[in-house]
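Sequence only, no structure available. Ideas?
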Amino acid sequence: SGHGGQNVQKVATAIRITHKPTGIVAICQDERSQLKNKEKAMSVLRSRILAQEMERQQRERSDARRSQVGSGDRSERVRTYNFPQSRITDHRIGLTVHSLAQSLDGDIDGIIEALLEEEQTQKLANVQA
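Reply:
I predicted one. Tokens follow.
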């Protein structure tokens, strides 16, 4: 018969709580008191919701990190500095700038703006997908 024996079947003290936004369900019928069962079920439900939220955040962080970090492959070029032609090519966004000396002196606003614009475009594409 388990805990409580006949009393468990005789007395209606079991609790089932459903978190509507996530659909997570917690059931408790361990105690003879409905109030204690409710407290236990709420505790279980809170921990399950917290675990799911932490897992979601961890997944988002790892996805964001994966998108920022490359594979480390040598063929994965970021930028090429061509000194004879005074040219910089950013291979990630396909941008070519013909002002190598100014860029090396710190005038890289055009490159940064193009990278930020591409990042924003990628984020919008991911949201729409």
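The CA atoms of residues 40 and 106 lie 61 Å apart.
Hope that gets you unstuck.
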